[in-house]
Design brief:
By secondary structure, the chain is mainly beta. Helices cover about 0% and strands about 45% of the residues. It has strands at about 1-5, 10, 15-25, 30-40, 45-50, 55-60, 65-70, 75-80, 90-100, 120-125, 125-130. Strands 2, 4, 5, 6, 9, 10 and 11 form a 7-stranded mixed beta sheet that branches. A 4-stranded antiparallel beta sheet has the order 1-3-8-7, with no helix packed on it. Strand 7 and strand 8 (about 75-80) form a beta hairpin.
Length: about 130
């Protein structure tokens, strides 16, 4: 399994970026892809995830309403559209995959903590996002 994340860069506050995560190597259809970030000196934080179930997605409170996760099934690419960026969004962003099929990216199952990093088995290399004027 391989995940390649890209799309980071330098953007001004209020701007937008779209991150991409190209996924390959899964031998079964159901898996979840999550986006995480880690700022210097801070723990890795879960932001959003999406599964193969139609319409299933989940967001942390810190990005809800500003970030949008989506998937292109034809190319096995997951995107994170980030709008209204603020300085506090500066971090290295990672995509990750759950191979077990046990991560439910749906608000109804928020109590199962779909953004728990321990639930994800494969990780991309990370892409730097810097929000600065």
């Amino acid at each position: 399994v391989q995940l390649v994340d890209s799309g980071g860069g330098l953007v001004q506050p209020g701007g937008s970026l779209r991150l991409s995560c190209a996924v390959s190597g899964f031998t079964h259809d159901y898996y979840a892809i999550g986006w995480f970030r880690q700022a210097p000196g801070k723990e890795r934080e879960g932001l959003s995830c999406i599964s193969n179930m139609p319409g299933d997605s989940f967001y942390s409170d810190s990005v809800k309403g500003r970030f949008t996760i989506s998937k292109d099934t034809a190319t096995n690419t997951v995107y994170l559209q980030m709008d209204s960026l603020i300085v506090e969004d500066t971090a290295v962003y990672y995509c990750a995959a759950d191979r077990s099929g046990a991560v439910y990216c749906n608000e109804r199952y928020s109590y199962l903590k779909p953004l728990d990093i321990l639930k994800y088995d494969f990780w991309g290399q990370g892409t730097q996002v810097t929000v600065s004027s």
